Amino acid sequence: MSAPSDDDKANILLVDDQPDRLLSYEAVLEELGQNLVKASSGVEALGLLMQNDFAVIILDVSMPEMDGFETATMIHQHPRFEKTPIIFVTALHVTDLDRLKGYAVGAVDYVAVPVVPSILRSKVAVLVELYMKRRELQRLNRTLAQANAELGEANNMLRAEKTRELQQLNRTLETANARLEEANRTLQGEMAERERLEQELRAADRRKDEFLAMLAHELRNPLAPLRNALVSLQRRGISDEAKAQSLAMMSRQITQMSRLIDELIDISRITSDRIELRKESVGLQTIIDDACELARPAIDARGHRLWIDLPTRAVELGVDKTRLAQVLSNLLHNAAKYTEPGGEIWLSGKVEDADVVMRVRDSGIGIEPAMLTKVFDMFVQVDSSFERSQGGLGIGLTLAKRLVELHGGTITAQSDGLGHGSEFIVRLPFTSAGMATALPASAGEAAGATKCRIVVADDNADYAESTALLLRTEGHTVHVAHDGMHTLELVESALPQVVFLDIGLPRLNGYEVARRIRALPGMKHALLVAITGWGQRRDRELAQEAGFDRHLVKPVNPELLLQLIAHAPAATAAAGVAPAANGKGEEAERVLLVDDNADVRASIADMLRDAGYEVQAVPDGHAAIDFAESWRPRYVLADINMPVMNGFEVARRLRSRYPSSEMKLVMMSGMKLNATLRESAASAGFDATVDKMADREDWVRVLRY
Ligand code: ADP
Questions:
Q1: Which domain holds residue 400?
Q2: Which residues does a 6 A CB cutoff place in the pocket of ligand 1?
Q3: All residues at 6 or more sequence positions from 234 whose CB lies less than 8 Å from its CB, including other chains
Q4: 385 C-alpha vs ligand 1 centroid, how far in Å?
């Protein structure tokens, strides 16, 4: 028996109990070049089959113990050898029955003994080839399966890779998408904002057009009655009564027009942030009085009743009193305008917690809820039709709101709807300055006392002439110039005590004119007043540098001009008092005396005049500050205990404007001077202190020192 060998060869199992026959099979089949494996019994053959595959089995039919048929049956019962071809070798004559039996157990062929070598060889060769082919096929199949598996694996990897890439792509896409959505949202937001702004712009533009139409209408309105009144006045033989009526009408129309124009100027200042508040300590009562005085004609004209409710104790505020009175008078005007004749108006002022609250309520036409906040927008009028127009431009409340806000306060409107009246509430933070305000001496009173030479210079001929007319009616001698050079010539020849000078003069501007006036002999102490459209701090500084004493912003209230003239120090000289001198031919030093007690003022002034000083005396702190600004005294002697503004405050305010080298401040006290008092005096800016009861030598010593 030989063992099966290498894989390239097929195994052929030869089974026969006779060794010589096995040898003969071997000899016959050797030339096929395959592995020939021999077994001498069916049992041995079965054992070999367990270990190897065989391409073909040559099986002896008649063997002892287990014959060929039994062996074949057992072989084919095994699933692995089911298909293994078996060639039976039989020495006997094989009957057809046996043949059938053999085929039934799986034989593929029969070979009779004696074996014809070529037949056996060719039969085996065919079966071996078949086996080889099948084996090759199986191998190919396996390779194919493996290739398939590898392909499957590669496919899986590819799919996984692709999935990963797709997921990655997906994530990138999602991020890009989110960004796009975000960008989209931003864009939509921006578009909405733009749309809103465009709408606002269109609305503002529409309001501006309406405003311009309204402005033209409102400005033209007073012209017809003015022209009519003028024609009546020019008529000969006009009765005194008609004359008075015409003049009153002209005055009303001019007041109305001035109000409109003032509002316009203010609104342009506000939109370019050029409004500056001049805060001072002032009583609530004063503001309410001023506002009522301004609005009274409008309230009376429509037959309304005005009720005023104020706290019993005095309330002091730190505000710009003119601007605040303007706000309240504006609200009162509106209340009068938007209330049917014969209505009621309530004005109240109260301290509520940390605020001062002023309310103007009326029994008028009311405001619908949707308009309650809009009425404060510029050019907004609830009913802007000309027929319903009450004479206004829709800017009064805008102005009021801005002025209140500049004071750190708020203004709101309330109404229970159309026909139910309106209420406007101004709320200001309550800043008690702890001081009261004194009204300066009335213009008329002071103006009556002095007659001055005055030059008025303005390129607006009508303004200059009408101002001159007004001043002449007060008894002053007035010269008018319309350009800078002419002004200089006039001043040089007339040597006026007061010059009102427009800054924007042709040929030589106001600053230059002022500088040259100051250089003229005898014009060093004249009162130079700049009158301009610009009220910024820088404009004031420029005016001061050029030598002006005062800086007024147009439009100037004529009363203020009269008041300034009355306080002009040179006016005293004009009124016949010789310029003070110290007896050595030098100009006397100026002393300004502030004391609320008239007797004290008179006695100290006399004593100082005796000592050779030029003295002016005023009764309160406000007057002192105004006066010091225009007169520039060398010394200011201030009483401490004054009811309006105490001496410390006067000193503080003066010291903040003038250094000690320019203006010496002396504290006068009726009390014994202790260390604490002296310390307070020094920290307020006083240079020296003096006892009111001191004698003349002491006074002179203090001033010289
Ligand atoms: P105007 O010059 O038109 O009075 P305002 O800015 O002062 O302008 O007011 C804006 C609008 O607010 C007015 O046109 C009016 O429609 C409304 N308004 C103001 N005050 C009152 C009020 N007391 N009662 C009813 N409506 C008012």
A1: 280-429
A2: 334-335, 338, 362, 364-365, 367, 375, 380-382, 392-398, 422
A3: none
A4: 13
Within 13 Å, how many C-alpha atoms sit on residue 624's CB side? Answer: 34
Token couple for 361: 């309520």
11-15, strands of its sheet edge to edge: 35-39, 11-15, 56-60, 86-90, 107-112
Overall number of domains in the chain: 4
The string of pLDDT tens digits covering residues 251-304 is: 878 877 887 888 888 887 777 777 777 888 888 988 998 898 888 888 998 999
| Number of neighbours of residue 407 by Cβ within 10 angstroms | 21
Choose one of 375, 415, 423 to mutate for the ligand 1 pocket test, by most ligand atoms within 8 angstroms of C-beta. Answer: 375
Which atom of ligand 1 is closest in space to residue 330's alpha carbon? 7
Q: Is residue 613 part of a domain?
A: yes
For residue 535, report the distance from its CA to the centre of ligand 1, in Å: 29
CA–centroid distance, residue 352 to ligand 1 (Å): 26
Pair 407, 456 in one domain: no
Residues 612 and 697 in one domain: yes
pLDDT in tens, 563-612: 788 766 544 433 333 334 444 445 678 899 998 887 788 788 888 887 88
Assess whether the previous peptide bond of 19 is cis (omega < 30° from 0).
Answer: no
Say how far apart CA 621 and CA 578 lie, in whole Å.
Answer: 27
Q: 221 lies in a domain?
A: no
For residue 548, what is the domain's CATH number? 3.40.50.2300
